[in-house]
Design goal:
Elements: E1 3-6, E2 17-21, H1 28-39, E3 43-49, E4 58-60, E5 63-67, E6 70-75, E7 80-85, H2 91-108, E8 111-119, E9 129-134, H3 137-144, E10 153-156, H4 157-168, E11 173-180, H5 187-202, H6 209-213, H7 215-231, E12 238-241
Parallel strand pairs: 2-7, 2-8, 8-11
Antiparallel strand pairs: 1-3, 3-6, 4-5, 6-7, 9-11, 10-12
Helix pairs in contact: 1-5, 2-4
Length: about 250
């Protein structure tokens, strides 16, 4: 049965912001989500049992306890949630995931932040970040001055399906699109998402020194998952331009 199984009822949240961390291009969302969970020592708040989520068990280093592949972590102090995923989610399954989560979002008054990489050949410049929104999310973007995209495009993969669901059901959602390496895990793109997107939208300062210092370690640790995402394009969240007059 589809459900969000809350594990810690002692956590008190008020209209939290939830950062989505599904694997995608550059593993931008995955790296950012994992970093937030670690940086704030977030509580394993809930397990996600939704149709379309692979029925596998996950184990972690130095911990004998098994967990579900998609989980929600919470930080009561900063009124923040993180959706952490250790497996790819197919777009069709993401629609089921969105439907499964939507009632819980309404009950908890959650505003989701969806993260997507825009495949870009690496340069020495800081990756550019753009923001999009559904529902009342546009007002929130205007309040913090985040830039809109400078060209037409689309967001595909599971994050695209989740954003589509928000549009279709007139729900509030925000999407953060950042230039990222299409071939390798991209901690720098995740740093930009955190500092330029998540921080202003949540009002929470996130330490990223460890993310920068461990960039090579993170790339190596995530490389196998990145290769898997490249081999399964439809499961890989990404933004792409629609140049209609070229």
């Amino acid at each position: 049965m589809a459900k969000i199984d809350v594990l810690d009822d002692s956590v008190s949240l008020t209209e939290p912001t939830m950062v989505e961390g599904l694997p995608g291009v550059g593993l931008v969302g995955k790296i950012a989500a994992d970093h937030l969970v670690e940086a704030f020592d977030m509580v394993h708040y809930a397990n996600v049992y939704c149709q379309g989520v692979p029925k596998v068990a996950v184990y972690h280093e130095d911990d004998p306890s098994l967990s579900t592949p998609v989980r929600i972590y919470a930080d009561e102090e900063h009124d923040m949630l993180v959706l952490q995923a250790d497996v790819p989610i197919a777009p069709g399954a993401a629609t089921e995931l969105a439907t499964c989560l939507s009632d819980w979002f309404d009950e908890m008054r959650v505003t989701p932040l969806f993260l997507s990489g825009l495949p870009t050949e690496k340069t020495d410049e800081v990756p550019a970040l753009h923001a999009v929104a559904a529902g009342a999310g546009a007002d929130r973007l205007a309040d913090v001055g985040l830039d809109a995209p400078d060209e037409m495009g689309l967001i595909s993969g599971p994050t695209g399906a989740l954003l589509h669901h928000a549009i279709e059901n007139e729900r509030t959602a925000i999407g953060l699109v950042v230039e990222s390496d299409p071939r390798f895990p991209d901690p720098e793109a995740s740093r930009v998402v955190i500092k330029q997107g998540i921080e202003p939208l949540t009002g929470v300062e996130v330490p990223v020194e460890n993310l920068v210092e461990r960039a090579e370690e993170i790339r190596n640790a995530k490389e196998q998952l990145a290769r898997r995402m490249q081999q399964a394009d439809e499961e890989s969240t990404q933004a792409q331009p629609l140049r209609m007059y070229q």
